[in-house]
Amino acid sequence: MARQQQAASSMLAVALIVGAFASIPTAVESIGVCYGVLGNNLPSRSDVVQLYRSRGINGMRIYFPDRQALDALRGSGIGLILDTGNDAPAQLASSASSAASWVQTNVRPYYPAVNIKYIAVGNEVQGGATQSILPAMRNLNAALAAAGLGAIKASTSVRFDAVANSFPPSSGVFAQGYMADVARYLAATGAPLLANVYPYFAYRGNPRDISLGYATFRPGTTVRDGGNGLTYTNLFDAMVDAVVAALEKAGAGGVRVVVSESGWPSGGGFAASVENARSYNQGLIDHVGRGTPKRPGALETFIFSMFNENQKDGDPTERNFGLFYPNKQPVYPIRF
Q1: Which range is the signal sequence, renumbered to this chain (predicted)?
Q2: Is the alpha carbon torsion for 139, 156, 150, 68 positive or negative?
């Protein structure tokens, strides 16, 4: 997983207007949790699937075709985002036969016993590699259809700085031209755009102008978007609706957004505490059943991540996004 800090600089001029805010927790069956494996002390794949089921977690994302995890998921009913891995898009884009081989190896043996919903063609792909995303999706969709697996939707998972001018949300527009092409293709196939949305990084980048409460679903802050007339009571909604605005400007306003990663670290850096992580993640679970001001209705969302992973590199916070310790005990109380 190649997540980096997200450039939310255009959101950081948030004007904070104190106001009333009330919320009624709403359950969402489509809440999922990302399952990373960059640790040397993690439970077995089968134990992990059992933990998902025992906690009522109905969605999972894995970051490569992990055969042990796929085998453990058989018959579980858990809805899956299956990533190709970031080394695969160039090969998938190179030829139809490469895509067909990938499907026969990584999808056909498992579906429908494994409830594969989406295939993410790359996660937060950057630079020149972005040119492989669209041809890879085209080849992969053709291969899925040829194998009788057309119900599985190919997409790609983008980091939030794929959107520019994200404050106010109505100003959101894709930062690079390739994303407009991707968006229009998703509109044609009926697939959602997978977006990684992290209010944590936006808050960490500008705590002067963004309140901690607004970033962590705590009550007391409202921000009005003069462009669309909508009022926002949390930063997550504002960020998601900036993605929606970018889709609309690309001529792909009908494309759903699936939040493929969102979370808050419990240690390792600024504002990374157990209480802030609990407030954000529980708030997220309770909130997404209602959707956003721009798009009411359940918003399919995946929390990052299931476990603290001790072999992740980069910023120390990267090793502290887990809901659970490797011994399967919760880092903090959480209900699904």
Answers
A1: 1-22
A2: positive
